[in-house]
């Protein structure tokens, strides 16, 4: 998924000492659905842990980013509140 | 993404006459992040339009499903409320 970085947090460390950074990815694209093209936009809450977090923490809001990862619930109580865990990224 | 179907809606038609069905996908998996394996769970709101909708409307809650598609905001006001638009599916 691609988008522009927004609300980039400062680099923090989890209780286990793992670097972590959070940000939003402002995504816009054209997608094909039911035989028609449609404009798509969404704001995806992202978190990166470990090496990706250290690297991404140097970015600026407004930077374009392509990310790969997996969706997970923000917490076990609100399983439909989704966070994209970024495991790989590129320009 | 794979998961179990939940809250499958009845088949409806959009004002433009396109078949549509909504459901939740109860996802659980093991993912690798920052060099460690972790258990992941989330509930993804899904919508299918067109032929996929007609086919998926015959499924039952609790069925296992593998889906492909794109993330979009539920509406332009709440851009962080995400819906997975299913464009392809399998067992």
From TrEMBL, chains A, B:
Highest taxon above the source species: Bacteria
Pfam families: SSB_1
Gene3D superfamilies: Nucleic acid-binding proteins
Protein name as annotated: Primosomal replication protein N
Highest classification ranks of the organism: Bacteria, Pseudomonadati, Pseudomonadota, Betaproteobacteria, Neisseriales
């Amino acid at each position: 998924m691609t988008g522009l970085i927004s609300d980039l947090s400062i680099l923090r460390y989890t209780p286990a000492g793992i670097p972590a950074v959070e940000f939003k990815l402002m995504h816009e694209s054209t997608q094909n659905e039911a035989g028609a093209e449609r404009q798509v936009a969404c704001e995806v809450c992202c978190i990166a842990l470990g090496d990706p977090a250290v690297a991404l923490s140097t970015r600026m809001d407004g930077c374009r980013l392509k990310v790969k990862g997996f969706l997970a619930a923000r917490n076990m109580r609100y399983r439909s509140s989704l966070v994209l865990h970024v495991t790989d990224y590129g320009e």
